[in-house]
Amino acid sequence: MLETALAIPYWLELAATIAGAVFGALSAVRARYDIFGVCCIAIVVGLAGGIMRDVLLQDYGIYAFQKPNLIIACVITGVAVFYFGKLITYFDPFVDFLDNLSVALWAVIGTGKALSAGLDIVPAVILGTITANGGGIVRDICMNREPEAFQAGTVYVSAALIGALAFALMKQNHLFDQYAAITCVVLVLGIRYAALKFGWRTRPARDYSDAVTQAVAKPVKHVVSRVRTHRRPSRAAQTTGLTGKIPPVTAKGVTGSMPPISSGSPSNTGSMAAVGTPSGVTSTDGENIYYPASDDQPTRPESET
């Protein structure tokens, strides 16, 4: 059997079971459950973590069903808390101590049994943490509450994780392994009470996406702007040497607009007389070309003479 592979004192298991049962029964009494409900919650908190561990270990059976004395101890604890709960509430510091002690003891038991089953350090620590906190998680589910172990608040699950890790490392590497259990208990209790004294609390999720995006985007934008600046052509290369509108092409020395061509005899109009249609002076495309009577008259092409 698995329980004989690692020598765990029976009183240690009984103490852890009763400590969890007390805390669970108090939660049920404050929720105004009846005696059956109080006993059930006491069993859940006292033994559910170990049952989850044994289910995950598979071939070794459910230890709580092999030791029915643990179930009977939870029932007796539930009945005592149901009828004498007011007296127990006067000892809240003691109840808190029992809760922390239960977490530490179950971390030792769960991790030790996982190591005795041949598991490595990592799965052993996981099973030890589940054993220590599984009862409280199942209790909150049964009482239709959000699991306290998953909420931001005082350091609770992390203390069990650190204690289970220390126990597994000392046992696996044979480093003062005879003191591994007491080291785990001291670590868990020390972290829990230090968290209460100094206000150590876990925090909910905080999104850093915007900060990371801005930090990454700033240098990228700077590089892109520099690349665009180098690729942009200079203003001198964009200009053609002309500014403003291109002026209309006119004959040299001629200002103003050309007068209309008349078909009759020439007459003096304005600064330049309209010229009739001369005979035999045509362009190669059949259109008449007229030249002003000026000294600057260009030479006619040979094709027009």
From TrEMBL:
Cell location: Cell membrane
Domain of life, per lineage: Bacteria
GO cellular component entries: plasma membrane
Keyword terms, alphabetized: Cell membrane, Membrane, Transmembrane, Transmembrane helix
Record field: compositional bias (Low complexity): 256-267
Pfam families associated with the record: Gly_transporter (PF03458)
Stretches that traverse the bilayer: 7-29, 35-57, 69-91, 103-128, 149-170, 176-196
Family annotation (InterPro entries): Gly_transporter
Residue span(s) of domain Glycine transporter: 10-84, 97-171
Keyword Cell wall biogenesis/degradation annotated: no
Region (Disordered): 229-305
Membrane topology: Multi-pass membrane protein
Family as reported in the entry's similarity comment: Belongs to the UPF0126 family.
PANTHER family, sorted: INNER MEMBRANE PROTEIN (PTHR30506), UPF0126 INNER MEMBRANE PROTEIN YADS-RELATED (PTHR30506:SF3)
Name listed for the protein in its UniProt record: Trimeric intracellular cation channel family protein
